[in-house]
Amino acid sequence: MSKLQPIRGTHDLLPDAMRQHRHVVETARATAGRYGYQEAATPIFEATEVFARTLGDTSDIVTKEMYTFETKGGDRITLRPENTAGVARAFISNGLQQNLPLKYFYAGPMFRHERPQKGRQRQFHQIGIELLGVAEPLGDIEVIAAGAAILDALGIRHLTKLELNTLGDTESRDGYRAVLVDYFTQHLDKLSEDSCERLDRNPLRILDSKNPGDREVVAGAPLFSDHLTDAARDYFAEVCAGLSAIGVDYDLNPRLVRGLDYYCHTAFEFTTEALGAQGAVIAGGRYDGLIAQMGGPPTPGIGWAGGIERLTMLSNPHAPAPRPVAIVPIGEAAQARALMLAEDLRRAGYTVELGYSGNLKKRMRRADQQNARAALLIGEDELAAGKATLRDFDSGEQSDLDLDTLVDALAAYR
Ligand code: ATP
Ligand code: MG
After folding, report:
1. Fewer CB atoms < 10 Å away: N or C end of the chain?
2. φ and ψ at 353, to 5 degrees?
3. Has this prediction a pTM greater than 0.85?
């Protein structure tokens, strides 16, 4: 029989990896909390139309990357490729328009059928925040600042740079769109098939193409910044000024576009050069049209998502495994007492390993493998005297303790 393998592009999070993963989530949750973002979770699968309608039917995600299934009842469902559409759906389904602004933090798995490589998986995990109901630049500033603060709290802000651009308002977009179509039409022969298809429906998307031929054409394309309305330009200037005022450094990148249809105004990415081709660790932007497009009450929104795998790759290993106290009974009577002692100590907050079987030597070896801080040896004679021997593995020292007052005597090992 061949060995069972995980599905391509998926990974097990064994305890060492899981701790790094959780460190990112907990740091992000705590930091986002200080900005007023509360954790929420939406289902891992949704009706396919939740994504198909919102992400736009020309996006890579919808055309190539979604895991879509038909259920036994004949419904089409999709494993969420991202969480903004789910949050917007939840906002509409729960009728939350009276509760604005809403500030959500989330963390969880996302699924995209793309070519697995370093920093790119088919099941990956994101943290993210969404701010609904704020149309002012202060919203953009806060959301971006929270992202920077999380990178800072993870100790990796210096490995990233914040790239910033504006996609303008509807009027700017319409004007720019016409100019772009003109330009790309002159270079049709050099564009990929995908991009030629997008030319009609969503020329802006071509700017986001990763195809090398497309990239060459894109390099000479007219800039959005030259086609902004005054209102859109002022809006962006306020966002930039606010970020500068609070010391969040950024680089303007007029070529930065977001891959999804619903973005407008501010678009941003925290990128790094430390991860090769997969340079974006956090990406987001403003999506004022999204909720109305889904059939909800027109509601502005802005948010970002960050890839947890990429964030853990940048962070130094954190949060070492807890070091237990190992209880090592010698003999049957001691074993029975050890079971109770272990339970008492755990209830008092200690991390305790109680070997299941084996002689002294074997149990001590296991305690070593578990990186125990100390072993509590309980032999027959000691048990009769109401004592135990504590061996500290770091100092090598040994001491006698009273079994009755053990919980307090071990305080240094909690
Ligand atoms: P990329 O350009 O790398 O494909 P994207 O524009 O598709 O990224 P978003 O949809 O904005 O990414 O997702 C936000 C973040 O989620 C990314 O910046 C990245 O850190 C992470 N991410 C996206 N797709 C994957 C993936 N397949 N595997 C691991 N992380 C991912
Ligand atoms: Mg992608």
Report:
1. N
2. -110, 130
3. yes
